[in-house]
Each structure stands twice: as structure tokens, then as C-alpha cells.
């Protein structure tokens, strides 16, 4: 890098500095770019929808903005998926006929569409798999179920889904589904194994270990609740 520094400039982008080696960091001028605000994401979504020729209600733009967690790329993908899922539109989804379109029939047969503000935001396939993994962990705690969860983790990793994104999504779904009494234990467990993941090489080992540990935590909690219920009787 030093040899060609006068004639060559490199721009490197990363979500985190922890995985960048120190020699490379020391040779770069670090510039932190904050995540876009919800207002900025809404403006981009409206601009894209206008260029693509469809109407985007403000209410639905806000829903997409909140669902994408300030990730503009994810927001654009969710907007595209939502449009594909809702087209061609059913008559009960259309509502009032938009301007410049003479009738609902011609609207349904045309390539121009608009969103129903009450429709759900489409999720990416990998997010649906993460939700399914959390559901599998909640419903049963056994070796057989752990093997099935391991298979789902493998599917995500082989499709180039980052392990830290899998960790985050599965953890959020577990926290949403589990009792708040064990939420601190789940967070502590997730933090421990995510740290091990960043230090290690094989993501599947740490993902599976996290799933097994959660099963233990949740099963102990269920057993304790059942024992307390029997004692009360």
C-alpha cells in the first residue's frame, strides 16, 4: 500500500471494525457513517416508488422503515418483495381507485399498482427461516429437535447469510416469544456465544451451542414452573 499510495486510493466499507486486522486499520483513515434516519429512509422509498411508477402510501413507507431496522438495503428489498406479494391486487385490497386510472378493472389488468397501507411488510426468506428456528426451539427441547435446528442453520450459512445476522434475528425472536423472566438469561447466553463466534472459525459450532444452551435454559424454566404449579395444588 505504501509503494503506490501516491497514485492509488482504496475505499473500504465495513459494518464493524472488529474483524479488520490492525495493520490494515492503521493504514486507513477511518470515517464513521451513521445509519440513515427513519425520515431519510422514507424519503428514499418514496423516491424509488415514484421512479418505478407506483404509489406508496406514507403509512406503509413508515412500516417498511421500522421493519428494516435502519438498513436501507433491507428496506428496499422489503419494499420490492411487498409489491411482488401484493400484485396482482385483489379487489378488496385495492380500496379507492387511484387517480389517472379510470376503473378498478383496468387497474388490475395494468402494470401500475399501489399498496394497501394495512398489508404486512414482506420478510426476506432467511428471516422466515430464523423465525422458524426460534419456533422449533420453543416448541420442543430434544436431541432430535437440535439436529433439525442444526440443519436449518446450515441452510442459512450455505446461502451466505452472515452468522451474526442469524444470531441477532433468532435471539430477537426468542426474546419476543419467551417469558420475560428468562430474557436476561437468553441475552447473556446470546452475548457469550456471539463473542465466541467472532473469535472462532466455524460458525455452525457456535450457533448449535447457542441453540443447545437455550434449550437447557427454557426446559429448566418450564420444569420449574410445572413444579411450582404442582406444589400449589
From TrEMBL:
<dbReference type="InterPro" id="IPR027417">
    <property type="entry name" value="P-loop_NTPase"/>
</dbReference>
<dbReference type="Pfam" id="PF22534">
    <property type="entry name" value="RFC_C"/>
</dbReference>
<dbReference type="GO" id="GO:0005634">
    <property type="term" value="C:nucleus"/>
</dbReference>
<dbReference type="GO" id="GO:0003689">
    <property type="term" value="F:DNA clamp loader activity"/>
</dbReference>
<keyword id="KW-0235">DNA replication</keyword>
<dbReference type="GO" id="GO:0003677">
    <property type="term" value="F:DNA binding"/>
</dbReference>
<dbReference type="Pfam" id="PF21960">
    <property type="entry name" value="RCF1-5-like_lid"/>
</dbReference>
<dbReference type="GO" id="GO:0005663">
    <property type="term" value="C:DNA replication factor C complex"/>
</dbReference>
<dbReference type="InterPro" id="IPR050238">
    <property type="entry name" value="DNA_Rep/Repair_Clamp_Loader"/>
</dbReference>
<protein>
    <recommendedName>
        <fullName>Replication factor C C-terminal domain-containing protein</fullName>
    </recommendedName>
</protein>
<dbReference type="GO" id="GO:0006281">
    <property type="term" value="P:DNA repair"/>
</dbReference>
<dbReference type="InterPro" id="IPR008921">
    <property type="entry name" value="DNA_pol3_clamp-load_cplx_C"/>
</dbReference>
<dbReference type="GO" id="GO:0006261">
    <property type="term" value="P:DNA-templated DNA replication"/>
</dbReference>
